[in-house]
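Narrative summary of target 7.
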Amino acid sequence: MSRSVALIIAPFHMGLEGSAVGAGPNALLDAGADRVLGSRGRPAQVEHMRLRDAECSDIDAVVDIGRQIRQAVQQARNKDLLPVVLAGNCNSAIATLAGLEPDDTGIVWLDAHPDFHVPSTSRSGFLDGMSLAIAVGHCHEDLRGRIGFGRPVAEKKVCLLGCRDIEDGERERLAASAISDQPPAGVEAVYLHIDIDVLDPTESPGVNFRGPGGWSLERVCATVKSVAAELPLAAVNLTNYRPDFDPEGKTAAAALRILAQLVE
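Modeled conformation, tokenized:
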């Protein structure tokens, strides 16, 4: 049965609107994401996030947008709609998960990277590379708290799929964790995270990371369809589409096919 969707547009890259992967959400909307996710012949309802204070720091901007995403996710859930967030960065996951509380939540995370660094293992200090670690309560508790995500997800309720670029430090941390490649069991709600770089770059050039060995589009579509059909799917984020690297629109077309699996 088709599900009604609330489409949430967060077009930011670390607080910069429309820059790099921050241009991806509106590009996907222009390509027809609302029509693909619509029901009964009508496009999905769309809500745009806006940065309210142009003078704020990168972290303040992440918090501001995160609070808006959290509120939009909560409102969609209250209307019995499936919130689908198109965002630039993976750290948007923290905000979407905040909107699912107090449900007993599991995570299915599709990504070329595990995003499981903490500050002591990260060479770059880039927040996106710590997104999943933040979600399970390993770092940046202050950021999580400011966005309104009070209770981290248990490691044993996280399913990590598609990773092919795992750095030193992350590998050891993952091996010591309870994270697996198995669907989360015994949860009331599942958050599905789709970083579009999980796809092989031959099928999807419009991303920052284009290392070989990614999943095929058919495999990603089958996985998303299975999650939507078999698990208590409560919210979805699709992140990291970079349209300036996608002149032929291959990644945009792939993203729309993936999104379509949520409502078929």
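The chain has one domain: 5-260.
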